[in-house]
């Protein structure tokens, strides 16, 4: 990677600079120790408090996203994918590091807050208004959203009666209606059928063509390969590989295959080799930048 090339305001939509995310989480695991520790445990049992452990969800992630990119994020359970999206969306503040986004990203999560007792149609209205569309614009886009979701007359039924795939389709259609410049999608597309996949791919292409950036979290390397131009493989909160979607997906698949065959040593070696071979991104802000302010002095090293 170019050691000093600055990237300019007009190209960058999101910059993530050395982001760490730590959580302190109560653990019921018995701590080793002698009698004193045993007494401590007994006391905690009575008062109900538990010792806390540190979980490192992200351990120094840096990346710069450009206009027109669709970036897949892959990795095993707990590798930090959703945390990264939440941090980019501004829902959580990193423990360390900085995130700057050109405009407010829209996060489309599997648990996007829709109301189960309302119909799909009512939820579309609610979702559009919540994303800042005017009531008039909401009515205008309603038919397109319903069309993109493609769930037929079920759109008039309460959302609690939907299958997970139907709910995911509706959420995607609602998020896409806002025409966000930065769209973050957490798993939502993996449950759709072939027709929906094609429609959602087309809609994502439109969003990207509209000078936007789309981030997609998915376990399936194939989905990432088909939908993204670039992919980032995360493992234990670190970037293993950040490159063209096809190459990253191929490497990740090979690693996952070795793990599934019980070849843990070979998988570990592949992981280490991949990290060693890849040139890590390092994004720095020359001036103190804040979320929502344009990227002015960021440099990728
Ligand atoms: N709010 C939280 N409080 C405590 N720990 C958390 C929290 N959110 C995430 N974690 C932990 O951070 C790590 C990364 O979680 P994250 O959900 O980002 O992983 P993921 O790659 O999206 O996983 P999955 O593929 O299973 O959805 C995990 O160990 C998880 O337990």
TrEMBL record:
Residues 41-261 form the ABC transporter domain. InterPro entries: AAA+_ATPase, ABC_transporter-like_ATP-bd, ABC_transpr_TagH-like, Bact_Polysacc_Export_ATP-bd, P-loop_NTPase. It holds the Pfam family ABC_tran. GO terms for molecular function: ABC-type transporter activity; ATP binding; ATP hydrolysis activity. The keyword Transport applies. It comes from the Bacteria. Keywords: ATP-binding, Nucleotide-binding, Transport. PROSITE patterns: ABC_TRANSPORTER_2. Residues 282-301 are annotated as: Disordered. One of its GO terms (cellular component) is membrane. Belongs to the ABC transporter superfamily. This is ABC transporter ATP-binding protein. It comes from Sanguibacter suaedae.
């Amino acid at each position: 990677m170019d050691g000093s090339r600055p990237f300019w305001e007009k190209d960058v939509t999101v910059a993530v600079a050395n982001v760490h995310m730590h959580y302190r989480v109560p653990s019921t695991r018995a701590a080793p120790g002698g009698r004193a520790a045993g007494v401590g445990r007994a006391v905690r049992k009575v008062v109900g408090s538990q010792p806390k452990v540190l979980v490192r969800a992200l351990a120094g992630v840096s990346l710069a996203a450009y206009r027109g990119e669709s970036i897949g994020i892959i990795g095993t359970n707990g590798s930090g994918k959703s945390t990264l999206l939440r941090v980019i969306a501004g829902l959580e503040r990193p423990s360390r590091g900085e995130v700057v986004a050109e405009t407010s990203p829209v996060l489309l999560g599997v648990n996007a807050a829709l109301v189960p007792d309302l119909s799909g149609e009512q939820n579309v209205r609610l979702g559009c208004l919540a994303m800042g569309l005017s009531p008039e614009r909401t009515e205008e886009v309603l038919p397109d959203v319903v069309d993109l979701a493609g769930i037929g007359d079920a759109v008039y039924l309460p959302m609690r009666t939907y299958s997970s795939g139907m709910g995911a389709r509706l959420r995607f259609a609602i998020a896409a209606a806002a025409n966000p410049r930065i769209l973050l999608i957490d798993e939502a597309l993996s449950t759709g059928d072939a027709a929906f996949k094609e429609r959602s791919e087309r809609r994502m292409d439109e969003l990207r063509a509209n000078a936007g950036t789309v981030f997609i979290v998915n376990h399936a390397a194939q989905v990432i390969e088909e939908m993204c131009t670039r992919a980032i493989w995360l493992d234990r909160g670190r970037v293993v590989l950040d490159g063209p979607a096809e190459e990253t997906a191929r490497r990740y698949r090979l690693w996952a295959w070795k793990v599934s065959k019980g070849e843990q040593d070979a998988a570990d070696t592949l992981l280490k080799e991949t990290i060693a071979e890849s040139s890590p991104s390092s994004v720095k802000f020359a001036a103190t930048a804040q979320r929502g302010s344009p990227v002015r002095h960021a440099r990728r090293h």
